[in-house]
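Please check this today:
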Amino acid sequence: MTPAELSRTVLRSVRGAVAERELSVPVPARIVVQAPPRPGCGDYASNVALQLAPQAGRPAREVAEILRRRLAGSAGIARVEIAGPGFLNFTLGDGASAGLVADVLARGERYGRDPESGATTGAGPGRIVEAPVPPAGEWARARARVVGEVLDRLGRAAAEPQRPAAAQDDELPRLVARLGTDEARWVLLRPAAHDPVRAPQRPVQHEDNPRFRVQYAHARARAMVRNAGELGFVGEPGDVTADAAHGDVGVLQALEGRLAAYPTVTATAARRCAPDRVVRHLEVTADAYLRWQEEFWPLPVGGQKPLAVHRARVALAEATGTVLGNGLRLLGISAPEHL
């Protein structure tokens, strides 16, 4: 079950509860499911019960219990639990990881950019001016220009008259000349709208640099796919946990959660005119991948023949490379195959 499928399943449960008068609320247009805040809380979580509770005039946990009963036993869902004030935590059945990876690989460059994967490509006409106005001062116009380009790619068509005039836009070329295109775009896109831009004196090609770390993780993921090909096999979605008695499953869940959440992040970034959300999501995705690769090495070692688990792990590495590459290109930053 993919995140989009789970979202539709939860939405059907709300519709059913309304149709049978267990709940008296307007049926939402869509329901967001995302990675839980910490490992051990299932595969996905939703705050739909908290959103519906005020309209229903009932406690959120009571609303959550109505939905939990309806969702229990649904195809692809192994367990539904209520956490805190009324969050629904979902543990998916066997094959959930494989389904996510297969979905990412099938959509490829479209993952996170089309309606079926949860993003909004037709968000309606937007303008840079709809975003919170960046603080005045150094790099403000440069940031507005770069943000506008990303919003265009996110489906928020920035109106041409709102673009900064070229004659006033000398900050960006100076920043590019000092840092290079990739680093300049990263430092302009990473801060939230009202945060200042902190540009380093020079770019550092080191894992302490978040932009380099994301590009490095992408290159490592792509290298795994190439190395598998050199060993005579390709990735195939499947169970990545076999023979992983000493691996931290929480690390795997963190990575899968980041991959699954990417379409929601891009949709939110478009809706709120906030490309910085994509930047920070790529950072945590890269970190999750590098930790997972240490815990669950994808390739056979010591002359071992490739097994199904190796194919599954290479497929997960390929899916991670797809998400990181999509995000980097969305931001106008290079996604190198080699570093």
The longest strand covers residues 77-83.
